[in-house]
Specification:
Blueprint: E1 5-14, H1 20-24, E2 32-42, E3 47-51, H2 58-65, E4 73-78, E5 81-82, H3 88-97, E6 98-101, H4 115-125, H5 134-144, H6 150-154, H7 163-175, E7 181-185, H8 193-210, E8 213-218, H9 221-227, E9 230-235, E10 238-244, H10 245-250, H11 255-263, H12 304-308, E11 314-317, E12 320-322, H13 327-333, H14 337-341
Parallel strand pairs: 3-8, 3-9, 6-7, 7-8
Antiparallel strand pairs: 1-2, 1-4, 4-5, 9-10, 10-12, 11-12
Helix pairs in contact: 4-5, 4-7, 7-8
The protein binds iron/sulfur cluster.
Domain ABC transporter: 5-261
Organism: Oceanicola granulosus (strain ATCC BAA-861 / DSM 15982 / KCTC 12143 / HTCC2516)
Main location: membrane
Length: 342
């Protein structure tokens, strides 16, 4: 299928030009490359999960996909059309098609409005439902996110509801205008572990019913595997590996992906268990990016060439790409590849 949303060679640099005063005073922060040639395709009705630690650029990619931020270079395409520079009415029309769900549901809800008013707002803003039909549309949406009795939830204020209920309402608010694409940035990570799978299953059910496309941003590989058709692994602003979810995990071709898989507890009780990515060494910051392969300071398989030459994101299987000089060895021998290669 043709991608519905594409990120094409995105580059995002913060503090590229700190200004003359900061430079003269010597207090200029170095530039931070939050996205370095990031290309990702979202296919209609599917979920692409973007997995990474903090500082990987996954949230930047999501913010650019919704045009909350404009890239330094590269393009965002919606149904093949370049939307990168949209403004005004065209931007508003784009926002009706591409919605965002945040980590903290409070960000999406005005505490002074009832739930019903909050849900009606986007319908009014985009002129989608006449005033007389608002209440019915709100009730229908509350039913869809399984908040019953819908009538009493419609009249409640955010302060009266739990975190899980609020996230369901934030999801309802993003979906009520029937967007084609939803960008979800860690939508369950602030919720109690016991209610995460409920919210994830709700999102999957809505996708089955409506064909909505998700870009699902998470630090948690097990959540990505549960939610996604495809997974992209990001590190210091770049995609290191990308492929079909099951293949990426069963035939991981990048040492970083292998380490992420090892970091997931093997006998986890459910896909929703809290698993922070823990790896040896610090994630370097994007400022002062390592030479050659950006992962080499933490890579157990690093060779001299890795410090000199950046590996391209190259095919390692069907619709599966990885950026490692030794991807074939890693795919065959896992993290034992170093001994196999020498
Ligand atoms: Fe490790 Fe070298 Fe592969 Fe980078 S290119 S991931 S340093 S083996």
């Amino acid at each position: 299928s043709r991608p519905i949303l594409q990120l094409d060679a995105l580059r995002m640099v913060y503090n590229a030009d700190p200004g003359i005063l900061a430079r003269l005073s010597g207090r200029a922060d170095p530039p931070v490359i939050a996205a370095d040639d990031v290309s990702l395709d979202l296919h209609p009705g599917q979920t692409l999960a973007v997995v990474g630690e903090s500082g990987s650029g996954k949230t930047t990619a999501g913010r650019i996909a919704t045009l909350q931020e404009r890239p330094t270079a590269g393009r965002v395409l919606y149904e093949g059309e370049d939307v990168t520079a949209l403004t005004g009415a065209a931007l508003k029309a784009f926002r009706a098609k591409v919605q965002m769900i945040f980590q903290n549901p409070y960000d999406a809800l005005n505490p002074r409005l009832t739930v019903g008013q909050s849900l009606a707002e986007p319908l009014t803003l985009h002129g989608l439902v006449p005033r007389a039909g608002l209440r019915a549309a709100v009730i229908e949406m509350l039913e869809a996110v399984e908040l019953r009795p819908a009538e009493s939830f419609a009249d409640a204020f955010p302060s009266e509801l739990s975190g899980g209920q609020l996230q369901r309402i934030a999801i309802a608010r993003a979906l009520i205008i029937k967007p084609r694409v939803v960008i979800a940035d860690e939508p369950v990570s602030m919720l109690d572990v016991s209610i995460r799978s409920g919210v994830m299953n709700l999102m999957r059910g809505i996708q089955r019913d409506t064909g909505v496309t998700y870009l699902y941003i998470t630090h948690d590989l097990s959540v990505a595997r549960y939610m996604a058709d495809r997974i992209a692994v990001m590190y210091l602003g770049a995609v290191l590996e990308e492929g079909p979810a099951e293949t990426l995990i069963s035939r991981a071709a990048h040492p970083y992906t292998r380490l992420l898989i090892q970091a997931v507890p093997e006998h986890r009780a459910s896909a929703t268990r809290r698993t922070r990515i823990r790896l040896p060494g610090d994630a370097a910051s994007q400022a002062g990016l390592p030479s050659g392969c950006r992962f080499h300071p933490r890579c157990p398989l690093a060779q001299p060439i890795c410090r000199e030459k950046a590996p391209p994101l190259a095919p390692v299987g069907a619709a599966h790409r990885a950026a490692c000089h030794f991807a074939d060895d890693v795919q065959t021998h896992g993290l034992g590849a170093a001994t196999a290669a020498t």
